[in-house]
Amino acid sequence: MSLLNAVERACARLAPFGWRDLLLQHGLDLTSNTLREELAKPLHINRTLAGFEDFSISAMHGIAPGRPADSLLFHAFASPNVSTGASGEALTVFPTAAEIEQVLNYVYGAAPPSLEAFGDQKLAIAVFAYEYRPQPETVHRCHADLCFSRAGVARVGTADALYDPIRRGFLPFVEGQPNRMRVIPARYGAFIAAKCAGQPERFGPMNAQPGDQELAFWVPLHKLFDGDECLAGFDLRVQLENHQINEKIGQIHRRFRGTGWQEPDILNAPFVITQGLSHWADTEAFAPGLLVPDAKQTLVEAAYYKGQPLSFMMPPDSGGLIHGRHRVRDDGSIEDLNDLENVDAMVKAGGYRALHYQDSMAEGWVRAHCPQLTLESIAAYSIIGAPDFFPLCGQRELKEWSSDPEVFPCPTPPCPEVWHTRINPLSDVRFYINQSLEGNYFALEDRGVTAIVSHPQSFTTSRATPQVAHAQRQSWLPDFASGVFGPGWEVGRGLVDAPFTNVLCGYQLASPFTEDARICAALGSYWPGVAPDSTRTFEPRSVSATTIPLTDSEIGSPGSPGWDGRHGPTWVEVEGRPLIQYEAYEYSDYTQAALTSQLSLTMTGHTSTEQYHQRVLGMRRAYQAVGAGSDKERWKRWPLLSFFLVQLPDDDFEAAQQEANFRLKGDVHFYRLFEHGSISTPTSNFKLRHVEILQQVELYMSPQAMLKRQNGAPWRRHDESL
Question: What are residue 148's phi and psi, to 5 degrees?
């Protein structure tokens, strides 16, 4: 079937469901008997229609050969913001993922270029992860456009991927099953690419870093696909190959001595896993190039070697990188160290046999083979990362927002970090790639792999673009992944000749990943934007304070368990004295929670970027209101006991407004903080902590104003200017 035939078939399918009427608003008739000519004729674009506000201002054709962002039909099919018809009614039928790719191929194949048309620049066949994004998320931010990176980030899960045609992408939620999460795939494609030094005004990279103008980046010029309509004079056959590897368990036994395992055993699974990690999606539904992680029964599984549970000698001082809480007794039975006092000290000391657990995270590459072209093949770096508990909140966007002096004024640098550590998206990292990956396809000087670029173009037309919504889907590009390594979330920073040289590698992460998740969540979302902040779930600790508060329901207080399977703090009375009772952090075990399918992203995952912002700002306002100012050490004295969005009608809220003689407008959140005193362990249960209350403050907070009550005194409007 020709490229045009595929486009005709897609247009004919969609036309009766509002798409013909929608595109006619621009002068494009999807049912034309001469669709090739119809797509090539000049149009009068109506950019006042919803979803078309950010369509390229210079574009005027249904298909602009070689220019996806200037092609109206591709924009209409691919933009997640095109979801309503000509009269504003909701569309009910949408293009499939395969149909979007078919239209994209036609954009590149409507007037296929010759290889000579690309000039004498250094060319190669390079693989990129790519997606079509609304204007605020593009490299240049002038209009909606394709964005490319030589690194893609898929994510593990316990249910198959599910395409959402309205969003033109994927989300991890499983309806009616809050403790399951869908895998998130990543789309890759082969492109003719040129090697160029960074040019932010021409192709990027996005958020250019110091030195990028001297660093070489591969820049996509033209998509490659099967057939004789791609490149003039060629009948191409393009095949993508991928290799993924999880060697975290094996690397543990290389890093620590006396574990009981060495070569040749650690060259085999599960020490090194290369099978059962991912597969290519069905091409009829998704077109070639969608790499999908294999869904597993649980996020973490017991490791087996030669048919037996894999155990090892727990090394001392493992730094929290290894789960070692299930001790193997001499008779082979398993003892849960969480049931013993001082479990942290036992794990730190090591010296006992423990069970190994594995996850399905991986790293590797995707390469293209096209025997008809004698060009070098440049691989993309493939990451299969941990779940993202805030899939709608990107790292790059959070970094830009938190760096805005109008949001967080900083008259005297260096400015304090908003979170426990700095925030940095993986797309801003300029490290080279794991040199031990099979094939050795990444050169040491190839440090722009995770950068995001666009097609080369010149931006001569500027305009005031109306506010355009971000895509409400999980992105697979690296600006939605963390570039902070401690050791990391999706990927780590590796060991080569010296500790922590600048190389990206998956084996530096904890085994399994839930050990990382436990630590970073308790540090106030150490990797912001992907990790929940669990500080208010546990007793006050000296290492952190709440930064992005989770609601009462999200932490399991009261009622059903929270996102991590645990329950939040409760009021208790001991010898006539009110105390706050916590489940102790020392006995939290996220690996055990994953084994029993207790982890959930259903509640946190629907948090929008704007809601994330408001939570961070609201928590800072709450600290100001209790007198802790911007001093993070003083913040630690004021744990957050309760936090929720007020749902009207609410009798307590109404009474507070009447008593304060002031009414709050807009969304209102309730906060209860208390200044803590001594922390003790009840003799009846060493897994609990009792915390003394010195004083407490309650707040009702809207975006513009706040009501405050301290120690049961009357409600008053709080003056935030003081």
Answer: -130, 145
Residue 475: CA count within 13 A, CB half-sphere: 34
Angle at 483 between CA 480 and CA 484, to 5 degrees: 125
- The rounded distance, in Å, linking the Cα atoms of 70 and 467 is 20
CA-based angle 351:258:590, to the nearest 5? 55
C-alpha span between 428 and 481 (Å, rounded): 10
Residues in the chain: 722
| Beta-bridge mates of residue 706 | 701
On the 0-12 / 13-18 / 19+ scale of CB atoms within 10 A, 27 is middle
* Strand pairing category for 163-164 and 169-170: antiparallel
Kindly list the strands in the beta sheet with 362-369, ordered across the sheet, starting from the edge strand earlier in the chain: 151-155, 380-385, 362-369, 239-245
At residue 102, φ and ψ (nearest 5 deg) are -65, -40
498 has a pLDDT exceeding 60 = no
Tens of pLDDT, residue by residue over 232-290, are: 999 999 999 999 999 999 999 999 999 999 999 999 999 999 999 999 999 999 999 99
Going along 174-331, which residue ranges are E strands?
186-197, 216-223, 239-245, 278-280, 290-293, 301-302, 304-305, 308-309, 311-313, 326-328
For residue 490 the two structure tokens come to: 């999706």
DSSP 348-374: HH--SEEE-EE---EEEEEEEE-TTS-
The residue extents of the domains of the chain are 3-109, 532-717
Cα torsion angle, 87, 92, 96, 97, sign: positive
User: What are the helix (H) ranges across 204-309?
Assistant: 248-255, 283-286
Q: Please, which residues have CB within 8 angstroms of residue 264's CB and are 6 or more apart in sequence?
A: none
Q: How far is CA 287 from CA 97, 244, 328, 370, 595, in A?
A: 7, 21, 48, 17, 34
> Mind listing the pLDDT tens digit for each residue in 58-71?
999 999 999 999 99
Residue 690, strand partner residues: 581, 680
d(CA 13, CA 25): 19
- With b meaning 16 or more CB within 10 Å and e meaning fewer, what string describes 107-122? bbbbebbeeeeeeeee
